[in-house]
């Protein structure tokens, strides 16, 4: 079980399902970039063109043979996460269903209407960056088989 604080304020406007993205309360670009730098520094991850999102999303993959994450820990192929372009700043992650439920309940994101991922809202300020980063780390742990 996560100990997620409730996300303050109303939820941002979301549209989709294709693309599924955040329309309001856009994360400041500097926070998006700091999050991305942390994401791409995770061990064994590599960046490649997305297999599921808009062409200019930045996606992360884990090579075959690294970790033992279940098939549900990947969006397509070995892609486990992507962050949307600067005009949006949200990201799609894979998490086990109970954790997706907690993310939704605390107001940090919504499930994708057609895929088995969760849209996590972009961080609006530094405290939110830390919460989103914790969710990214859980998604990574799921992909490498360290989270059931």
From TrEMBL:
The residue ranges of the Luciferase domain are 77-139
Give the region (Disordered) as residue ranges: 1-26
Coiled coil regions, renumbered to chain: none
Instruction: Note the InterPro entries from the entry.
Output: Luciferase (IPR048273), Luciferase_dom (IPR040841)
Q: Which PANTHER family match?
A: AMINO ACID PERMEASE_ SLC12A DOMAIN-CONTAINING PROTEIN
- What is this protein's record name? Luciferase domain-containing protein
